[in-house]
Amino acid sequence: MMGHLLQSFFSLVITLFFLGSLLTTLIWYMVDNNNVEPQRLSPQKKTTGTPQPSGLCKGCREVINKVIERYSKTWKKQEDNYQKFRSQLSSKCHGFDKAIITQANTPVGAKLVYDGEKKRTLQVTPEIFSTFAKEHPFSNKIWDTCAVVGNGGILTNSSCGKMIDSAQFVMRCNLPPLNEGYGKDVGIKTDLVTANPSILLEKYGSLMGRRRPFVESLRSYGSSLLLLPAFSFGFNTPVCMRAVYSIEDFQSPTRPVFFNPEYLQSLALFWRSQGLKALRPSTGIIMASLALEHCANVHLYGFWPFSNHPHGLHALTNHYYDDRQTKKKFHAMPAEFELLLQLHSQGVLRLHLGDFQSGEK
């Protein structure tokens, strides 16, 4: 009898304890919830209403206003300026013949000089030669319209996808995601996409283990060209070769090709002569350069180096898919943008900084 009473007593105590804990937690939550700041939405998320200016760095508003003042002037292609710049670029860099390594321009026994390590060379062996494109994939070909798509956060909620996909030839940079709900803003059409070896290193373990995830990630690019800088730095070569072998082994329709380091070196010197002081041009300006030699009308999307949107000044992520920062040691993004803005103002190419749901054409 006594044992039964004790058991009932302890059950009552435990029940009261849990009820007290629950009540205390509820009171704490109600009080704390009234004092906590509301969570800020990530700039990547779609929000209703007008985004508010956020996180402006000192002096950035003035700089952005000056950019918009220059950009907002009615754009018209200036054929003479375009032909003059294209001629200068072609005469210095020879993108038609040298941008991509082929079996025609780089035979067995040829010596490749790495553009990122001038003292490093590589003699082309039959095995390496077999990975080269048999001929230049677009030698002496001029497309009417080309879209070069950077990965800037300015593309978020831009609705530029349809306009990008309407271009005759579409170039993309560094294996960007297309299918995860981004298509409306960035499009899905791809004719050429680059791959920085650092992506292969960090995301796919340098392709030392399972390679299927890498090959499957290429599906969204279809049968596009995959442009690899295999001969820029010594550590690039083996991982880029593994990428090529993976594509072959899994019978992917993607067509891997290699940047010619001689072309990249010439291009770096060309842009240095135009005032660019960065150690290396970014992938974006390299693609824009390639387009200027091969396309009559060049349109650039996603090229905006500032952390605030030009229209409304709301905060932007660095890329439309993440906020990872660029390596400023190598790339001078604002300086590159200034050069591209000059070409826009001269009617050589067209930068798109607006969004197409608000009427940009």
UniProtKB/TrEMBL annotation:
Q: List the disulfide bonds.
A: C146-C295
- Keyword Chaperone appears in the UniProt entry: no
Provide the protein name.
ST8 alpha-N-acetyl-neuraminide alpha-2,8-sialyltransferase 6
The places in or outside the cell where this protein is found are: Golgi apparatus membrane
Q: Which residues cross the membrane?
A: 9-31
Superkingdom as given in the UniProt entry: Eukaryota
The family this protein is said to belong to: Belongs to the glycosyltransferase 29 family.
Q: Does the keyword Nucleus apply?
A: no
InterPro entries, A to Z = Glyco_trans_29, Glycosyltr_29_Sialyltrsf, GT29-like_sf, Sialyl_trans
* Organism the protein comes from: Zoarces viviparus (Viviparous eelpout)
| GO CC annotations, alphabetized | Golgi membrane
Record membrane topology: Single-pass type II membrane protein
Q: Which GO terms describe its molecular function?
A: alpha-N-acetylneuraminate alpha-2,8-sialyltransferase activity
